Amino acid sequence: MMTVMKSVVEKIKVWFRFVPREGWFPQDTEGLWATKLSDDTARVENAPFLQDGVAEGDVVKYQTDSDGLHWAVGQVSSSGNCTIRVVPIPTGPLGESPQAVHQRFSQFGLGGEVFSEGFPMVAFTVPADADFAAIKALLARGLRHQRMVERLISAGACRPCRPCASSLAPPRKRPRNRPLTWHSPDIEAAFA
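and the corresponding structure tokens:
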């Protein structure tokens, strides 16, 4: 008689600490689902909404505290993936619809997750072999639209609504090898 051994895949939540961004969520931690690879390493299995410097597929090292929580302490290997975050706004052409955001990015075959119904931010995992030039072009069209809106506002031809005003802040310079974060005016104009 032959014995068949089953491989048990253990999913754990690995927690990340970070400094909260000004004008953003007040949280300073985010838990990401991961597949346990050893007693102190795991592969991240979902896109981060708040944590920079990690992407789905990356292998991280963690330590387990006395409460049983697994805290990330470093990166073992990079998957080559990155994360793009898109926040649809009510007054934009996509409304508050995360489904519409997914539809616009469907041409790239990106997987994504929605933060919550109340805050429909979509975090996309962009594989290392994705068409970055086309994705960047789509995002750049949104940036050109944002600049046009800023000019209309400064000329007094338009008064921004609260969601637009909060997202018209200039984009922060992105450190190398960090996920891209794009807010809705940066992307939605490409879909008008």
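(Above: one complete record from the training split.) Residues 11-77 form one domain.
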